[in-house]
Amino acid sequence: VDPRSPLKRFESMAFCACRNTSVQEPGMWGGQTEAPERVLMQLHSAELDRSFAKVGIMDPYVVVTVDGKLVHRTGAAMWAHKRPSWDVSCAVRSEELPGSITVSVWNQNRMRKDVFCGSVTVPITDDMGKLHQKEFTLTKRSQITGAIRLSLAVSGQAQGPLLASMSSLGAELDHIATWLTEGGASTADTDGSQGLTRMRSLALAENALSEQQSQDLAVQLGQNQELGEHPTLLSPTRGQLSEIKASPTKLPAEFRQQSPWKPQPVKADEPTISPRGSMFAEAASAVEATGETIKTVEESAEVAKVILEEAEVDGGFPTPLAGHWECTSTFGLEEFLTNAGLGSFQRRLAMAARWPSWDFKVDQDRIKFINHSAMGDLHEEILLDGSSYTWKDGRSNLLKCHAKWTKTADGGCLTIWRSHAQAAYHEERRVSGDTLTFTLFSQDGTTWGRVFKHSP
User: Fold this and answer.
1) DSSP assignment, residue 242?
2) Residue whose C-alpha is closest to residue 145's, from 137, 153, 156
């Protein structure tokens, strides 16, 4: 005899019955039910940061859409509340491979309208391999609301592991490359001051649906409401749209029809930095004048150290850098990733990653830096007293670092040289008024960067 109360037995039976119930839309994306299976997906589980039910316990379910069209809907995970589990499979059928797939979590509400909890839009390419139980961050109106675990694969493709570039990419890009090949949680350093400090879920930019797509999706879900369009981190401004329309050939072909994934061009009035203006370039010119060459990573790091030691001491502290900064655009990233040998899917995933915000706290001869990245919060304590320090990148490489602050009339420049056995590169963060321009310079002269605005 089951010792549980009648209510508990009913809840258990209802949960088992509902959690495995799913709805495969008959029309499918592309309008052909007999079209070949293009993408295979498994919806495992989710973890929501808060409750979206005003009263009681949540019954979350998942909706899968392509270009705003519903292709799959799971049953509700009854009484699962903030930790639903579905473990169901679905397939996207179409004559051609979709550019992206959006996965949304909703809370079933018997008395009122169902409540949207958050979503993620994942880019799809024919070289993506198999993503096995990867965690993606859920967002709603640019706010993080939880994470969902998915498995994805392009039908008929070899299921071998994805290969990421072994060269250092800098910033949070190394963490994304490691997430692709390894996944799972990352442990922070024992003192908690360096490295990744949260679960390894990847945050991607939100997908903006057109007004008609929003209305169509609401009808398919049985909702008598409009799912309002919200600006995303990768949605171009009016000025950028004009520039894109004027020069459409500047964008890669796979991005021209996928508006949520259009890379942000640099505005005409935004500063750009030439590799020849970097400290490494100046060091190379100085050594070249003596008839010698820089042949190894170690020699490159030594040159940078000499320049640092011989540089003029400006005095003062990097106060223009202090505060909170929000990313407004990215430049040179696709070219940089292509040059580093990354495949199409790796590039699209990195370019779709949620843009970061930065915090700097200045404490005399050191800076406490937090990068609120797509892979969580990355911490670094930057020393400005002329001494070297170590910093661990996203591939767990321990890099030797030297930093220098140079004062300018309208701000200043923080330069950090980093090196380890396989690579050496340096970063510049130039502050001019309320604008901060970050540029990473690789050994081969390629660069990429971001532009930030100071936020009170």
Assistant:
1) H
2) 137
